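okkk here we go again. third time trying to get the zinc ion bound version out, last two times i messed up the smiles copy paste (missing a bracket lol). double checked this time i swear
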Amino acid sequence: MMAKASVKLTCTKCGAEFTAQKTCYNRTEADNWENYMSRVGGTCTDCWKVEKEAEKLAAREKQTAENASGAAQCPVTFPALEGSEKQIAWATDLRNGIITAMVNSKAQWDKIEELSANPEFKKEWDKLNITSAKWWIDNRFTKIFKFIIGEKY
Ligand SMILES: [Zn+2]
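finally!!
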């Protein structure tokens, strides 16, 4: 029979009193969880949310930095993007991510012209010169550049 574990805790972050609850498979498991939680404590829902948001933001910033440093290794310069400041920042990050993937897949930058003889390659490659930040944002979930990234050039 399922058992409900419930334990009163003091938030380790803000000091607020809160009740932590969990549905367990049986009473023993529920008791163990209550004891465990009383021992280690926990954060209230509000503090947990703040913590998760901060983690998400940090992960995003880390990814943005990785995209930027990866793109910096690309010998080809792409045109500046156009749009609002916010759009440009986002779109630049998206484009950097794609360029980084190309850098990581060891794209042969000195052979782009040669490779462009292949219309399928050229079609994808030309997208990298699209300057509309909005286009990059609108297409962020589209599997573009698969042709370029998926192959070793
Ligand atoms: Zn709290």
